[in-house]
Fold this sequence. Notes:
Distance between the termini of chain B: 32 Å
Strand content of chain B: 35-45%
Oligomer: heterodimer
Number of helices of chain A: 17
Amino acid sequence: MAEHQQVQLEQVSEFVWEIPRTGKMRVPGRIFASPQLMRDIKRDRSPWQVANVAHLPGIVSASLAMPDIHWGYGFPIGGVAATDPLEGGVISPGGVGYDINCGVRVLRTRLTHEDVKDRIRTLLDALFATVPSGVGSSHAIKSLSRGEMNQLLVEGAEYVVKRRGMGTESDLLHTEEGGRLAGADPSAVSDRAIERGRKQVGTLGSGNHFLEIGVADEIFLPEVAGRLGVELGTICVLIHCGSRGFGYQVCDDYLSVMHRAVGKYGIELPDRQLCCAPVDSDEGQSYLKAMACAANYAWANRQTITHLTRQTFMEVLGMGPADLGMNLIYDVCHNIAKFEDHEVEGRTRRLCVHRKGATRAFPAGDRRIPESLRDIGQPVLVPGDMGRYSYVLIGAPGALTQTFGSTCHGAGRMMSRKQAKRESKGRDLLAEMAQRGVVVRAAGMRTVAEEMPYAYKDVSDVVDVMAGAGVSEKVFRLKPIGVIKG
Amino acid sequence: MAEPVAGHREIDHTADLGFEVWAPDLNTLHAAAVRALAELCYDRAAVIPREERFISVTGDSREERLVQWLQEVYFLLESESWLTEDVATIRCCGDEIQGRVRGEPYDPARHTLYTEIKAITYHHMQVECHDDVWRTTVIVDV
């Protein structure tokens, strides 16, 4: 479909709009939204990208998009696409994104707002000094040797917990895939990726990545929240980051490989940024091995930051680990491709599910959820902007029937970075955030300007669509009180 | 007001950052793109051009060579914390670009960093010449 062509969108149910199959689309497109969100979505070219993804060989059922959809490289951010390797299905690096296994984890504590409200600035200063953030941030831990990097890339968060003593078995149990994606092979990774990654374990980076202290200010499902150790006033910590320069380089390296593969396998695509290769091809397999390394790097990164955060809280507040009770509720990835069994038209098929700016959301009873959470469902963490709130959700049965077990991942930008910077001219942004009750520490004020709340949609509109569609349910809401931005 | 012979300007893009760059020839275009990239990432005016680094890239197309060239400049920042101020010499010849860039190591006391870049993308990139002016758009993923 040409870029200038208008994409036809038909509302087919209260929360779903469909792009009918036209031309060489193999399946329809399907966007989850409310009428209000759809008005914004139509303003950028992301529906056109949903239609383009529908052209991928082996795509199953529909090219899907969550309500926080916006333009991305090839695939839209907020896109979900499942391909069947047995029917020529492809793997596409653009369907995962540059920041492989960018994700979020949320930790609960035994602390209440009352316990920290007078110490929040001290806590943030200490965290800011301990967890490197900003452009090219590095050296949270000693630079890794090649051998150590290889171990980390295969073992992921397990490397950090078991070989470095930074974390607990419980952390691994409460991380998607146990923090270790199978199939990682460092020989599929370039020297440059290793070079970019070896100094950056335990760092936030910049852009929309953050470390946030929040207080549970609204509980929607008290029983489930209680099971997660959260009640009204509980202090939680959110960590949002990914695979840093390592993952970016893996993506870059394999985009070149896939550009060549498209010609080699005679794949017809409406946009060269969707470049891909059959899952079973050498190119596809190599990318999957390298992607798994990057996914593991990201989990190791978030686990290291978790350890540094726990240490900082204990030092500043003079507490031991038992009193602090900073336990990992869950860690999800929102940029990944994974092989999962899904029932399609009455048949169980093993599919390659691309989630780019979308989160896995398996419902209660699913055997792929850790046993301790299986009766309530998989927690899903959806950060909003740094001034309003974030949500913790739980997967619902509709996810498996409608979205290959996926839901939204965030608020989605409403304003370009340039426009947000223009908007911030002459304003004291830190004072504005302080007025909202949020203390901000940032490596650069330009990032703060780009990430101000007015640049984002209201995340509650996004999570309400997914709740209305029966894909995920709201468990509790977190209001930020302290934020570290890169 | 007439546009300068070579230059760059930041452009609007919903999720990412980008710039448009133009110049009378390919060598100058690649130099202007380096300045544009540097200004997205840090306060270029504060960088003293007291050292040089050599960069050499190859690529099958003009777009691929420009992406590679800018990636090398960014790699200096990420791997060596070395900031490029400008291009000292550059030669675009066939499928190769060779050049020397000027700059200095990052000094937190003097330099302000703005944004980390995930990648230089091919999105909307078309290195083309019309009416003796070379132009392209560069979108960077942040």
